[in-house]
């Protein structure tokens, strides 16, 4: 029973949805079977008490003597699943009034109800005229669909149809170009993320040149994806980045929140990849996108909460640019927006990084003593800071202990994947560096070759720098 499609949906429902679905089941319009209500009550009781669903217990809860065969229970589960799926469709429809209106227009047109059709048509036109509800380019498809409805009404009424081909074609072209560029951005981002072989999309530009009206340049929502596409496909050209940022800042208010966030993350992730490839010129534009996201509330969730990972990423960008004052201000300003249960821990951890990068090792050590590390990667970062501090201070005993503890911790945490090998090599090479005799040129040369030739090494540059200074 635990692997059933019914339980998968049931477990995903919010408490409000569960209550609403119970009302739905109690309505004779949707359900006349008491067995389905009893099955719902059993599933809900198990969920509330965190109990495992049992097929035999469900059977006894649903049926009364004389008991039918067990196959009947599976039939009831299938019926409940169908009703639950219908409920989800209604829930989605209730949250999309525009789609609701299109279905209503279709129904009214089929019945020839002129007054009602005209009222709903006007309501839909007003809804589409609200720029905040259009999205990047979805509104163009909706405008196209509305013109089709108007034309079909005129045809049904045997009136001279006002067929606006140019208007319909322009809206359809705008939607098509926007959708094409959106999926092209997704494809290119996936290629970069997964290191996949690049697939040919060279036909896109010649195609765009043939589209009348050039919506990729004239319509802000479509232009965002056009310049976003050029931003990630031509990383050496800074102009698309600038235009993209200006467009996003000016027009994010008319985008759906998810669209605006998607576009922002397209730019941020592109910048992170460039930074990871050693392009220091990408640091400032990436930070600018982060700051834009903070200002517009796109990096926070619906409750205004900022994830600890975003908080850390922004800090690291400030530090890479050596913007010490702005980094400190950021840590304090956005501290209240961190998840409440992790707020102090996350703040202290990032403050420790800030002081570590400034060379204030004493404050760093004091802060790290008061931080818990449930997150594996944060744990590794903290151990790395301790390793470097003790190395710089020449605290050999503390460093040896830190290296031993790091290796023990790595043996217990296979879930961190390739990071385990990277940090294992960091610990191994740091230990060898620690035991290297000053003046041992041959040993230093051999160790340097090992560090350079080993594929996975955390802090490779730092190790080579320390090796060079150990003469």
Structure description:
This protein is mainly alpha-helical and 471 residues long. Among the domains are: 5-94, no CATH class; 97-163, no CATH class; 398-471, no CATH class. The chain has 24 helices and no strands. The chain has helices spanning 5-12, 15-26, 34-48, 55-62, 70-94, 97-111, 114-129, 138-156, 165-194, 204-210, 215-218, 220-233, 239-251, 257-276, 283-296, 308-320, 324-333, 343-357, 361-368, 376-393, 396-412, 418-434, 441-453, 460-469. The chain is globular. It starts with a helix and ends with a helix.
Topology (SSEs and partners):
Elements: H1 5-12, H2 15-26, H3 34-48, H4 55-62, H5 70-94, H6 97-111, H7 114-129, H8 138-156, H9 165-194, H10 204-210, H11 215-218, H12 220-233, H13 239-251, H14 257-276, H15 283-296, H16 308-320, H17 324-333, H18 343-357, H19 361-368, H20 376-393, H21 396-412, H22 418-434, H23 441-453, H24 460-469
Helix pairs in contact: 1-5, 2-3, 3-4, 3-5, 6-7, 6-8, 7-8, 8-9, 9-12, 12-13, 12-14, 14-15, 15-16, 16-17, 16-18, 17-18, 18-19, 20-21, 21-22, 22-24, 23-24
The secondary-structure class comes to mainly alpha
**Number of H- or I-type helical stretches:** 24
Distance between the termini: 68 Å
Largest sheet: none
Order of helices and strands: HHHHHHHHHHHHHHHHHHHHHHHH
Q: Beta-strand level of the residues, as a percent range?
A: under 5%
What's the average pLDDT?
91
Detail the poorly predicted runs.
Answer: none
Helix content: over 70%
Which geometry do the CA atoms define? globular
Number of beta strands = 0
Rg, Cα atoms, Å: 30 Å
